[in-house]
Design brief:
Blueprint (H helix, E strand, L loop, with lengths): L1 E6 L4 E6 L28 H10 L3 E6 L3 H11 L5 E4 L15 E2 L3 H9 L3 H20 L4 E10 L4 H16 L8 E3 L1 H7 L10 E10 L1 H14 L3 E3 L2 E10 L6 E10 L5 E11 L5 H8 L7 E11 L9 E4 L8 E6 L2 E5 L3 E2 L10 H14 L13 E11 L9 E2 L2 E5 L5 E5 L5 H16 L23 H9 L3 H11 L3 H6 L23 H9 L5 H8 L2 H4 L1 H19 L3 H19 L2 H9 L8 H5 L2 H13 L6 E2 L1 H10 L6 H9 L9 E2 H12 L7 H16 L12
Parallel strand pairs: 3-4, 3-12, 4-9, 6-14, 12-21
Antiparallel strand pairs: 1-2, 5-8, 6-8, 7-8, 10-11, 11-12, 13-16, 13-17, 13-18, 14-15, 15-16, 18-19, 20-21, 22-23
Helix pairs in contact: 2-7, 2-10, 3-4, 11-12, 14-17, 17-18, 21-24
GO molecular function: calcium ion binding; glycerol-3-phosphate dehydrogenase (quinone) activity
Function: Calcium-responsive mitochondrial glycerol-3-phosphate dehydrogenase which seems to be a key component of the pancreatic beta-cell glucose-sensing device.
Catalytic activity: a quinone + sn-glycerol 3-phosphate = dihydroxyacetone phosphate + a quinol
Length: 723
């Protein structure tokens, strides 16, 4: 089977075989066992890495940027036996690489464009991505897995149209097709995805792509590079580029960078034969350090995602909306036992701290409503977290038409020798890194041989198996859910995390104290995170664990224990502890992870609006006011933890005092340690309108009131009176 395309660059028709006979799923690296791993048993500390950066006379390659592409470049370089360094001004994967849709995919929509427009470049982009998808699933089996994605069809004519397109996707993948796509009847589609809207549904098509834990995958790439000898350091920024005059040409050439340790402020030079710019959305900043006359090539686009409870989707079935109300594509996917929905695509400014906009959150919610059954009430209050990632679309500086956005990635070598890699997709990070190093080797005559990263297993993947979690349960006495999480996060390194777990003092589990009760993250992960170069509490809640991306309130509750553990391990001062407990997490959770938008559902209006008719009769307001006064016995006009604790004791309910403080803090809008009547009425108004859901205080007070009402007055005979 063949497809014919028109190649615009050569102005010729090109015929390409779609289905290739593949003898093996992947050709693993024959030389993998021969690659040097000087730090196979123990990673060097961050301080040791900084010392290596300062003391090494000259590296072959210095990579600037610790995202997926930068980490991929470092891994590609060090496995070519090149002396490699990498610096990242924030944490590894702190930018776009941790804020993706979590898919490893070829791009169904790109293939559609390739076929409709007979575009050979788009076709090859999809084919390359499908090859990389297969490779990534194989080299990090603990962090990735195939995911079935359903495309619901509501018009009969669309069924053969979409089926043909999805089948073509399978054919282009060839022997690397994950699983064959298939068509479902209406009844079968609803059986597999019961939340789906039934009205006018004619059937569905299911195809397979990959899904991964993006931040952990990025970290695995960086740590694998470190294992092989690369000197990597997070929180190390480039102040300016170093240059020297080439004796042969008389031109200035980049020969390294002046770096600054963000944590200590210490500055030092890192010299290298080649500097690679892999800074994603900040590509132009480094290009202008090289030459102030360089024009911008990055065209940033913001993609917002939201996380809602897991009951919105089946455990192992995603959903694709191929044509939203404004022509965009929305994915609706199970992830980490929650549901992730996104993404938007809007122009934005470049910033290190992108913030999700309320209009984007509501756009996604509205699109979700269009595809779910009317029985499923999609509530704004169910949004547990929201984030915005900046996609670095680029124009090609080598092209005559510099205004045209490049659909793939670009590799550019400047006159001074700075190598820039920009654009591209998460899925193709490895091939982008290979192409970048090929260009760097050619431009700087580095040697080192060809790339060795196809099939090179990443950190944790070597000793992983689907049943590894059982050994964790049996050997260490971990909870089943915790063991599964550790195996899926750390792979073969999960045993190292389990060894660091403390005894719980309970009959079961024997070890593994949870950071928060509803998530499987345990305290020993914080200790292990320090070994993985975590420097702040945000590094732990956002990228070593994914708690901040899954539930901002749960992340906020886990902070005190995380700060306590890290503070002891890193010998933090009181000022440092305070910074990690309040200001830094506040900015991250409140702004970047959507906590502000969530809290604004309570504070967005001062008017308490309940059902119109009932408000007129004051029924609901009276009910809620009476409920409040059952706790505010002294008619102070506010309630504290003492008031709630007193009522709970009357109905024989016990709640930990710290947990009670956290429950009241969710509603305490002015943060004065007490909940006023107006704050409580605003809460109940927001709960009724669906703007806030699962409020623990609202549920607790309602339950307590019902228990008190059921008890009624104590009878005379039970009180010991009577005759």
């Amino acid at each position: 089977l063949f497809l014919s395309f028109y190649n615009a660059s050569t102005k010729t028709n090109v015929t390409v075989p779609v289905l290739h006979v593949v003898q093996a799923r992947l050709a693993y690296v024959a030389a993998e066992g021969e690659l040097k791993q000087p730090f196979k048993d123990e990673l060097p500390t961050r301080q040791a890495q900084l010392s290596t950066l300062q003391d090494t006379e000259e590296f072959d390659v210095l990579v600037v940027g610790g995202g997926a592409t930068g980490s991929g470049c470092a891994l590609d370089a060090v496995t070519r036996n090149l002396k490699t360094a990498l610096v990242e001004r924030n944490d590894f994967s702190s930018g776009t690489s941790s804020r993706s849709t979590k898919l490893i995919h070829g791009g169904v929509r790109y293939l559609q464009k390739a076929i409709m427009k007979l575009d050979y470049e788009q076709y090859m982009m999809v084919k390359e991505a499908l090859h990389e998808r297969s490779n990534l699933l194989d080299i990090a089996p603990h962090l990735s897995a195939p995911l079935p994605i359903m495309l619901p069809v509501y018009k009969w004519w669309q069924l053969p149209y979409y089926w043909a397109g999805i089948k073509m996707y399978d054919l282009v993948a060839g022997g690397q097709c994950l699983k064959s796509s298939y068509v479902l009847s209406k009844n079968k589609a609803l059986e597999l995805f019961p939340m789906l809207k039934k009205d006018k549904l004619v059937g569905a098509i299911v195809y397979y792509d990959g899904q991964h834990n993006d931040a952990r995958m990025n970290l695995a790439i960086a740590l694998t590079a470190a294992r092989h000898g690369a000197a990597i350091a997070n929180y190390t920024e480039v102040v300016h580029l170093l240059k020297k005059t080439d004796a042969g040409t008389g031109k200035e050439k980049v020969c390294g960078a002046r770096c600054r340790d963000v944590i200590t402020g210490n500055e030092f030079d890192v010299r290298a034969k080649c500097v690679i710019n892999a800074t994603g959305p900040f590509t132009d900043s480094l290009r202008k350090m090289d030459d102030g006359k360089n024009t911008n090539i990055c065209q940033p686009s913001a993609g917002v995602h939201i996380v809602i409870p897991g009951y919105y989707s089946p455990d192992n079935m995603g959903l694709l909306d191929p044509a939203t109300s404004d022509g965009r594509v929305i994915f609706f996917l199970p992830w980490e036992k929650m549901t992730i929905a996104g993404t938007t695509d809007t122009p934005t400014d470049i910033t290190a701290h992108p913030i999700p906009r309320e209009e984007d959150i509501n756009f996604i919610l509205n699109e979700v409503r269009n595809y779910l059954s009317p029985d499923v009430e999609v509530r704004r209050g169910d949004v547990l977290a929201a984030w915005s990632g900046i996609r670095p679309l680029v124009t090609d500086p080598n092209s005559k038409d510099t205004q045209s956005i490049c659909r793939n990635h670009i590799v550019n070598v400047s006159d001074s020798g700075l190598v820039t890699i920009a654009g591209g997709k998460w899925t193709t990070y490895r091939s982008m890194a290979e192409e970048t190093l090929d260009a760097a080797v050619a431009a700087h005559r580095l040697g080192g041989g060809p790339s060795k990263t196809v099939g090179l297993v990443l950190e944790g993947g070597q000793d992983w198996s689907p049943t590894l979690y059982i050994r964790l349960v049996q050997d260490y006495g971990l909870e089943n859910e915790v063991a599964q999480h550790l195996a899926a996060t750390y792979g073969g390194k999960a045993f190292d995390v389990a060894k660091m777990a403390r005894v719980t003092g309970k009959r079961w589990p024997i070890v593994g104290n949870r950071l928060v009760s509803e998530f499987p993250y345990i305290e020993s992960e914080v200790r292990y995170a320090v070994k993985e170069y975590a420097c702040t509490a945000i590094d732990v809640i956002a990228r070593r664990t994914r708690l901040g991306f899954l539930n901002v309130q749960a992340a906020d509750e886990a902070l005190p224990r995380i700060v306590d553990i890290m503070g002891k391990m890193l010998d933090w001062s009181d000022k440092k502890r305070t910074c990690n407990f309040s200001s830094l997490p506040w900015f991250f959770l409140y702004l970047e992870m959507g906590y502000r938008s969530r809290s604004e559902q309570l504070t967005g209006t001062t008017e308490i609006t309940l059902d119109t008719q009932e408000v007129a009769n004051s029924v609901l307001i009276d009910r809620y006011t009476n409920r409040f006064h059952k706790f505010d016995k002294d008619s102070k006009g506010f309630i504290t933890t003492v008031d709630v604790q007193r009522v709970l004791q009357n109905i024989s309910v016990q709640i930990d005092e710290n947990a009670l403080h956290e429950i009241l803090n969710e509603v305490d809008l002015n943060k004065n340690g007490q909940v006023e009547l107006n704050e409580f009425l605003q809460l109940m108004s927001a709960v009724k309108k669906g703007q806030v859901s699962d409020s623990r205080l609202a549920i607790l007070m309602k339950t307590a009131e019902e228990s008190l009402d059921l008890r009624g007055p104590v009878t005379v005979d039970r009180s010991g009176g009577g005759v």
